[in-house]
Amino acid sequence: MSGCGLRTGSSPDTLNVLSLGDPFFYAVQSLLPEFEAQTGIKVSLEGPDYDTLNARATNSFLTGQTDIDVISPDSMWLSRFAENEWLLDLTDLVRRDAAEVDVADFVPSTLYSLSEWRGGLYTLPVAAYTSAVLYRPSVFAALGLQPPPSVPDAGWTWDEYLRCVRAIDGTDVAGTRMHGTVVCGSGPQPVTHMYSQVAASKGARWFRRFPADTPWDFTPQFAGEQSVASLQFWKDLFACSPPEAINYLWFDAGTAFGAGNVGIFYHWTAYAYLVQRTEYMGEVESAVVDDYALGVLPVQPGQQQVGNIGGYAFGIGARSEKQEQAWTFIKWATSKETQRKMALLPMRQFADFARSSLYDDDELVAAYPYLPAQLAAMQQGDGKQVRPPVQNYTTLETQIGRELNRMLGSDVPARETADAIQRAAEQIMTDEQFVPFSGSSYADTQQAMQDRLVALSA
């Protein structure tokens, strides 16, 4: 209900920024006095939870309010926001201020996954996450296991990953009883986010043709053999996780690893620093602060690797009456200089860089030694393949997450779960007129995105 209240307007002297309470929020908040002093622009920065952010934004835009000047929508909402003309297309502003924005410095996969829709550029990334493996070097050494590589390696497969998980699970290492791994089991978002990475790596896809291949065909593909194999693999990982993982949200999985009794898991790269604390954005160091490392995702033989990319990017509300001030804020928040300052705050709780140049910064690499592995994972990313940003993504995610949670909690067979997701997806896509699809298609490829970046940088 808190997301449904209307804001009747905005102060003419204040820029209203609606964001999410992810780590980047706290870093931006810390540096706001500097921005306000430099520009004379006062900022009201709000950080509601995920569902409230969606509800607040949807309600405001649908009712024609002008109270949102800047917003950081989840990347999965971008198509809906863009199709409804709730966000300003930033293309002309980026071209106008090309030297200041330096759009060519962004890792192309981040703009493609977070900011671009049908050729328009609606946001600029402030925090880009991809998927990577975190593991305990001391545990691997004690058990004589080969540690995961920090660069892509054809020999580092999902089967090898599961072998390591099973070799660790149930062992005693330095007096600690170990779990092989940990997963997010709670639905709908956490379990869907984490599971979809395995499925995408193993070649499973949501739809017959989308987004790169045209014409778009949203016929669901959840019951194929690759999906069934992925679901079974997910059940195998859960069997080597703490039983409580059935209810784990994103940070719960990170906290479990940080407690010191989990050998290896994969997650969003933000957890490469979040696992250092016992509480979210807290100050107490975890049990693994000096004993963990980051590796790249495993591969599936015969399948091209595709890593998830998610995160948040700032865009301008189409009805904002302060669009130039909003653009000034976005350029500042996403700039190389500000992002660097965010990373080097005393907390050292931000390293979600979308800019390539920051990965070559010696001081940043010293503070976050895993950055080379993170960049390697980022460069293999394609968020539109792993979790396709169709306009009704949230509806699909709810059904998928519900079935995934049921499979883990009630030990439902993988085939039965795949069939249940397929039936639900078919009904949703038919009812919401995506099947058959009569709308216009767009060949949405990463190469097309890179070509546009070259043009915008000219």
From TrEMBL:
Gene3D superfamilies (alphabetical): Periplasmic binding protein-like II
Coiled-coil regions listed in the entry: none
CDD domains given in the database record: PBP2_TMBP_like
Pfam families: SBP_bac_1
Protein name (record): Sugar ABC transporter substrate-binding protein
Species this protein is from: Pseudonocardia adelaidensis
Lineage: Bacteria, Bacillati, Actinomycetota, Actinomycetes, Pseudonocardiales
